[in-house]
Amino acid sequence: MINRLKLRAVGLILAIFVAGGLLGTVVATTWSDTEPGNRRGERTRASYADRLAAELELSPEQRESVAVILARRNQAMQDIWAEMRPAFDSLRSQIRAEINANLTADQQVTFAALVQASDSARATRARDAEARRDRP
User: Fold this and answer.
1) In this predicted structure, what is the pLDDT of residue 23?
2) Alpha-carbon distance 75 to 69, whole Å?
3) pLDDT, average across residues 53-75
4) How many other CB atoms sit within 10 Å of the CB of residue 98?
5) Residue 69 to residue 72: CA distance in whole angstroms
6) What would the mean pLDDT of 113-128 be, rounded to a whole number?
7) What is the rounded CA–CA span in Å between residue 52 and residue 123?
8) How many other β-carbons are positioned within 10 Å of the β-carbon of residue 12?
9) Given this model, what pLDDT does residue 120 score?
10) Between the chain's N and C termini, which has fewer beta carbons within 10 Å?
11) Helix, strand, or coil here: 135?
12) Do the beta carbons of residue 49 and residue 63 sit within 8 Å?
């Protein structure tokens, strides 16, 4: 009985943690890093090269070298992610199903909304990233 109770407690804590993460993602996507004139939720996040340049105080020559390195390796990174993405998606679905099984009907409705918002935000980020890659 105690083991079952502990398992439920751990499951509930995990569910709260994941739901909090999903909610945090939704809130961050919707309200942070926006500039006037941007569509609501559109981020103005600095690129990795920009962040490195700022954090490491790169010279213009170093910044250019970093940009070239990242551009040269970008396709390899995309290929690796394309290979791994199905495994991540499958694991995410399994986690969501397990969490959902531990929720009440009302919590399931709320959780479904959180999942939908998270998926929508992820799709928007993916479209934005693709649009940035397609720019000349």
Assistant:
1) 65
2) 11
3) 92
4) 13
5) 5
6) 89
7) 26
8) 13
9) 92
10) C
11) coil
12) yes
For the record, the structure tokens of 40 come out as: 């609501």
Q: Which of 46, 37, 16 is nearest to 114 (CA)?
A: 16
| Cα 130 → chain centroid | 15
Q: Between these two residues, 27 and 7, which has the higher pLDDT value?
A: 7
SS3 label, residue 46: coil
Q: What gap in Å lies between CA 114 and CA 94, rounded to an integer?
A: 16
Question: Given a cut of 60, is residue 40 above it in pLDDT?
Answer: no
Burial class of residue 118 in the structure, from the number of CB atoms within 10 Å of its CB (0-12 exposed, 13-18 middle, 19+ buried): buried
Query: Counting Cβ atoms within 10 Å, is residue 56 exposed (0-12), middle (13-18) or buried (19+)?
Result: exposed
Which residue matches tokens 């079952």? 4
Q: Are 115 and 22 in contact (CB under 8 A)?
A: yes
Give the model's pLDDT for residue 100: 94
